[in-house]
Amino acid sequence: MDLGIAGRWAIVCAASKGLGKGCATALAREGVNLVINARGIDTLEETAVYLRTLHPAIEVRCVAGDVSRDDIRHALLIACPQVDILVNNAGGPPPGDFRNWTREDWLNAIEINMLTPIELIKATVDGMAERGFGRVVTITSSAVKAPIDILGLSNGARSGLTGFVAGLARQPRLAEQNVTLNNLLPGSFDTERLQKTIQSSSQATGKSQEAIADQRLQGIPARRFGTAEEFGAVCAFLCSVHASYMTGQNVLLDGGAYPGTF
């Protein structure tokens, strides 16, 4: 299927590895020009080299740094001639017991997992509306629907972001102008983040990492962890011309782990 977005420009945050790289990869294959961001310059540039091999016509630019900083966000926007697609993504705050978290821990979580994507949305959606095309995909977490006890910082910050996106997506001034905003909620994907969560659970419970991983798999009807590639494919579809009637939605990708009907 031709997604109809070849030649568009996209900003993809936290794109050097994991789910962000999966999204950037899928968009690159569709002929989308990319401005990618991550904190580490070496890995980011390696990813850019790889992305350029996927499509002969695309341009890939790198902006390294912490996207929660004003100057890095400004550099991202300057590097992208026209933001048609925005993929918000950031590593989640560390797991733990809420009794040990300070006010500073909470403010840091809210800054990176709520306020930063809101700032990027604020900087881009009006331009999208003026041009009559825009796609915002924000990667949150399955914990927005089914909270995970040790991920309280993420549960709180990302739930706030989810509520904000839900309201904004339904503003006629955006929806009428072919600007959609949707969230992607990953369950257990085989990424560095998952491995760290398993390691933390192992340390907290005394169980082996293998036992923790097997326990997680038993709760997934698909009996496997997801891949970054299949996650990216769903992201690319949400960015396509075919998804123009889909906005304000939370798309859960978890192998069937969430037990609810809605």
UniProtKB/TrEMBL annotation:
<dbReference type="Pfam" id="PF13561">
    <property type="entry name" value="adh_short_C2"/>
</dbReference>
<dbReference type="InterPro" id="IPR036291">
    <property type="entry name" value="NAD(P)-bd_dom_sf"/>
</dbReference>
<protein>
    <submittedName>
        <fullName>3-oxoacyl-[acyl-carrier protein] reductase</fullName>
    </submittedName>
</protein>
<comment type="similarity">
    <text>Belongs to the short-chain dehydrogenases/reductases (SDR) family.</text>
</comment>
<dbReference type="InterPro" id="IPR050259">
    <property type="entry name" value="SDR"/>
</dbReference>
<dbReference type="InterPro" id="IPR002347">
    <property type="entry name" value="SDR_fam"/>
</dbReference>
